Amino acid sequence: MFSAIKGFHDILPGEVQKWQFIEAKARKIFEDFGFSEIKIPIAEKTELFTRSIGEATDIIEKEMYTFPDRKGELITLRPEATASIGRAYIEHRLYENNRVAKLYCIGPMFRYERPQKGRYRQFHQINVEALGTVDPIIDAEIIAMLNHFLIETNINGLELQINSLGCKDCRASYREKLKKFLEDKSSDLCIDCRRRICTNPLRTFDCKNKVCQEITSLAPKVLEYICPNCAENFEDVKRNLEQLGVSYRINPKLVRGLDYYTRTTFEVITDKLGAQNAVAAGGRYDGLIQELGGPDIPGLGFAIGLERLIPLIPKDKCFSAPLYLFIAPIGNAAKDRALQLANRFRIMGIKTEIGYEGKSLKSQMRWANKLNTKFVMIIGDEELASGRIIFRDMESQKQEEVEIEKIIEEVKSRKRNNLK
Ligand code: ATP
Ligand code: MG
Question: All domains of the chain, ordered by start, with CATH?
Answer without folding.
Answer: 16-167+226-312 (3.30.930.10), 325-412 (3.40.50.800)
